[in-house]
Amino acid sequence: MRDKYCGDVRETDVGSTLSLTGWANRWRDHGGLVFIDLRDRSGVVQIVFSPEVDAEIHELAHKIRNEFVLQVKGEVRKRPEGTENPSIPTGQVEVVVKELNVLNESKPLPFMIEDETEASELLRLRHRYLDLRRPVIRENIILRHKTARAVREYLDSQGFLEVETPVLTKSTPEGARDYLVASRTNPGHFYALPQSPQLFKQILMVSGLEKYYQIVKCFRDEDLRADRQPEFTQIDLEMSFVKRDDVISLIDEMIKKVFKDVLGKELNEPFARLKYSEAMERFGSDKPDLRFSLELKDVSGLVKESSFKVFLDTLSNGGIVKGLNAKGLARYSRKELDDLTKEVQSFGAKGLAWIKAKKGFESPIAKFFPEQTLKAVADRLEAEEGDLMLFVADKPQVVNDTLARLRQELGGRLELIKDDVYKLAWITDYPLFEWNDEEKRYEAMHHPFTSPMEEDLEMFLSMDTSELQTPDSKLSSIQAQAYDIVLNGYEIGGGSIRIHKKAVQDRMFEMLKISPEEADTKFGFLLEALEYGAPPHGGIALGLDRLVMILAGAQSIRDVIAFPKTQKAVCPLSNAPSSVDEKQLKELHIRSLHVEPDQD
Q: Is pLDDT of 586 > 70?
């Protein structure tokens, strides 16, 4: 029905007659001539209706409105001098219409098809078919396609096989709630939608396929936020006979190809590597944004010399005191500092202490510190005249989390974050376990199939299980062969070298207080497979949605997913989830206990 895409018409087409199709993007009547921007996936081209060319078609053009679907045929000519539009690729030409076919009409729009819109997200998602016509959203979807294509091309060149794993599988809770699917043919039994293909990709390594990948849907029934969806997409891969650096090197090159193919950007600097302990010490987070500094500094040892009770009480109870230097913000008023304190309290801290480097030291708490202590603290934070030193005192986890969030906030306020800068980092040497204070037991920091560091393996296997009852046991010192990759403050991927021996996997379950019976029920098919010559193996999963969100400069992964759900896991377009009739439930041997609220 067309000879070219609208956005591909160029000066080289001048004098030729082309058939074009698309949507009426904008309609203008300029004293006899009617101009319409005709839009398709590739872009827009200006078409012109003249009464001198065809009076009947010109009259019909007056009835065209936004988003009418058109087929036109006409001659390409250069735009008259002074009317060119250099901001679009087709801005030097226009098409004088000689034939017009209105393929379909459109109702009045609930919002305009433009990059900038005041329409609410809910309204846009309700009419997602219109929202996807907006150039900014359309380009995000195209960018997603290019990213997936670059990944597939690279992994194919490295000898990987794309293998699909089951969507209807066994429920093996891995931290989040499963989405369950009732089985009609097996009454009272349920499938689970996979939270990840973890078990199956390890099985594929036992199967001897050696290099597996897939771009795969995963499902987790958890609370949502801007960078999380109930169904999300992973770039998932696994390799046999590898060590940690093999996986990291592979992903380094894959990411470089993605940036080059998708953004045309060369990533020449080696990606940073930080141990988990270093990342927490310097940035308070294992996903630090390295586009700016504002590093955290532990001043616990220095403030011991003060008489400030808040700090001293915190230290005596096993807490820490950390600070950061907000460069140039000594100009903040008391109200601005009070507002900042309220923000910090919303992060979970009890409060925020501050000291201005301003003709000496200015602060309500300065009187509790000897002059030499203030100078030592300022030196530690590298504070100069006009700087603002900010401090939080609490348990290490609270301090790190609070200051990490404050650091990100200040990075924005001080305009230190550049949108066109990309800083990647690997975080390594994670603890194998973390203490769950509510349940008074250890949990796997990543997942229970992560292998301990080789140098910690002997201690891992020989440890007395009576030592597992307290958070300060030797178990907390065992490190994992785990690694995360971070981009501009977002974790975009995580993986590990896996446990490939059944005795080690059994020991891991014992450490996590998972009984042999429970382990067999949940993971029996993997445990059995490990007894049949399982090779050493490891892998990683990268979040495709989150990666594309960063590449696109979007604020939410909902803007890079064709049909996303809201933060309440609802699809406004299809009204999913929805109720089903009793017949369907009866076939699945399910009875609903949900009672609709009284309409009165």
A: yes
